Amino acid sequence: MTTQSARFEEEIPIDGVVKQKSVFCIITLIVGVLLLLIHALFASILGEPSLPVIVLLGLMLALRALELLWLQSRGRKLTEREARIESYVSIGSMFVLTALLTYFTNRDENPYFVLLAIPILQCAYMFGLLLTILTIVAADTMILFWTWYFYALHPPVRITEFLEIGMLCVVYLLMGLLVWFLVNQLKTNQSRLKSSLELLQATRERLISEEKLAAIGRLASGVAHEIRNPVAMISSSLATATYPGTEEGEREEMFAIAARESKRLESLTADFLTYARPSPLRRSPVLMNDQLSYLAAVTRAHAASRGVAIVSELEGDLSVDLDAPQMEGALLNLVLNAIDATPSGGIVKLTASLTGNALRIDVEDSGPAIPEADLPQIFEPFFTTKPAGTGLGLAIARSAAIAHGGDLYLIQNRDGCVTFSMMLTSSALNQD
Question: Could you tell me the pLDDT band of residue 243, with boundaries at 50, 70 and 90?
Fold first, then answer.
């Protein structure tokens, strides 16, 4: 790309240039119609519009209308070369039309000089300072030359007319420079904002990448920690069992420990795979009353052993489309956690209701509040405060909720009332 092309690309951003050029076409059409009306209304002062003037104004309006249609047909596909040629032709044709209208109007007080403001504004908005100044100089030169030429043919010279024309030239100069300055400031601020946004995006991506690496590190550390203990127990138990001097009863005990730890390791691996690689959803209509009643039934024995009561509060027959086994496992984790967190004599309450267009399932316990320091980590895998817990229960439950188009929230956290709420979007509701 040449230096000139690079400069043009910098000064006229192709993205959005169609809209800018379309606006100038519309402005030209409006100004052209207004000038023709003014000329006709003030014909007693300006004289009747001659046929050449009417033809030129009609030609200008037709060309701008065609230009507008062409721009709209191109959409965002206007190339840099097409944009440059279109700008030069538009500005140049406006000068030629203004000169011809001025000549055929043949008056010292010419209303068509106002058309020169359009190319000045175009240059100030789309190009650099040098081309803007050159356009202003060309417009002012045309106005001054016509005034001199008119009075050379129609003496005597009116000094006041030159003063008025001089003021118009100054107005065009100030207008062009001011618009260029404001547009240039806007482009500078836009460029800075773009750089800031790019820097912010790069920082955000770096933070996300670092957070992902940190999460992977925490996950790997949790897996290693949870696997290390049962593996160590299995290893030591088998070593003790195979020692030549070990008695038969002790050997059987060591084999039993190894088997129990192997089962624990298998359960841990299954939980981890459930969290890390959830199976595809197999939705089917499910009655939430039946689902929660079943959960209450299967956990009642465990709750009774801890002196905890299970209560279900259901709102009508709520039918939903979801993956029953996956949702059952998620809710089972929530209920077991609630039972373990509730002291003897406490209550675990299960409720399902419609909130707006979403299904809400609450698991509430009457245990102590979760410490503030633990709240940011409660949904992280392998985070647990229970001695025998894997720390995957809440993570699995939330993963299932997200898979169903919802999420899991801790909506209440105070002593005597801790509530986890699973919200499922309206897409899960069975409207039949």
Answer: confident
How confident is the model over 342-377, as pLDDT tens digits? 999 999 999 888 777 778 889 999 999 988 888 887
Cβ contact 396:271 at 8 Å: yes
Specify the number of domains making up the chain.
3
DSSP 343: P
Q: What is the pLDDT of residues 170-186, one digit of tens each?
A: 999 999 999 999 988 98
In angstroms, the CA 177 to CA 326 distance is: 69
For the chain, report the end-to-end CA distance as a whole number of angstroms.
Answer: 64
**What is the CB-side half-sphere exposure of residue 265 using CA atoms within 13 A?**
17
List the domain range (segments joined by +) for residue 404. Answer: 284-428
- CATH code, domain with 219: 1.10.287.130
Residues 100 and 207 in one domain: no
Dihedral (CA of 331, 336, 342, 345) sign: positive
> Would you say residue 182 lies in a domain?
no
